Each structure stands twice: as structure tokens, then as C-alpha cells.
Amino acid sequence: MDTNNTRTLVKFAALAIVLAALVLMEEPTSITACNINANHLEKCRPAVIGDNPPSPIKECCELLQAANLKCICRFKSVLPVLAVYPSKVQALLSKCGLTTIPPACQALRN
């Protein structure tokens, strides 16, 4: 693995740890990444986990519509650490009516 890939992997791992910690924290702490308040990510979680996830709620879709998708898609390799099915993310974006999906998100797979 070259140095650039190692650095990228370390960044993704750090982001995963931060996001996981935010989900587990009881105190309201707000970190914004990719135009998304990390505390609000839980609104979308049910729609991307499990074998037959439910449709996303309105608040989830509003969150994604305001997000910087190109930025979010850069972190797709972290999704398995967060117990999120990557293939469900692309479906979620479509269910929320997002038609301009960045190429990095179009390649999401389990």
C-alpha cells in the first residue's frame, strides 16, 4: 500500500471513530462534516441497515438534500465499520429524490 493510500485509510478510520463516538455520546455535541450535523445522521441510519430497511423519513431526505454528497462519498469505505450497508446508501439517495449522484457514490457496493 502506498503512502497516499495509507494516509487516506487513516483519515477514514479516524472519521469512523469520531462518528461512532458521536452516536454513542449522551451529551449533545455537534460536529459538522460535509454540510451535515453529525448528530442528525441517526435520522438516516434505519434506512441503510438491515436486510429490508424502511423508507427514509422526511428529515433524513432533507438532511441529504442539503449535504455535500461528493464529500460524503469519499468516506464510503468507512460505512462497514458503522454497520451500514454501502449498497443501501445509493438506494437511499434515490429514494430521497437525489438524481445527481456523484460517481464515487454510484460505485457503492456491499
Automatic annotation (TrEMBL):
User: One GO MF term, please?
Assistant: fatty acid binding
InterPro entries documented for this protein: Bifun_inhib/LTP/seed_sf, Bifunc_inhib/LTP/seed_store, DIR1-like, NsLTP-like
Q: Which domain of life is it from?
A: Eukaryota
> Start and end of every Bifunctional inhibitor/plant lipid transfer protein/seed storage helical domain?
34-102
Tell me one GO biological process term: systemic acquired resistance
Coiled-coil regions, chain positions? none
Q: Keyword Hydrolase: yes or no?
A: no
Which N-terminal stretch is annotated as signal sequence? 1-33
List UniProt keywords, sorted A-Z.
Signal
PANTHER family xref list: BIFUNCTIONAL INHIBITOR_PLANT LIPID TRANSFER PROTEIN_SEED STORAGE HELICAL DOMAIN-CONTAINING PROTEIN (PTHR33122:SF43), LIPID BINDING PROTEIN-RELATED (PTHR33122)
Protein name stated in the entry: Bifunctional inhibitor/plant lipid transfer protein/seed storage helical domain
The organism encoding this protein is Arabidopsis thaliana x Arabidopsis arenosa
What does the record give as the organism's lineage? Answer: Eukaryota, Viridiplantae, Streptophyta, Embryophyta, Tracheophyta
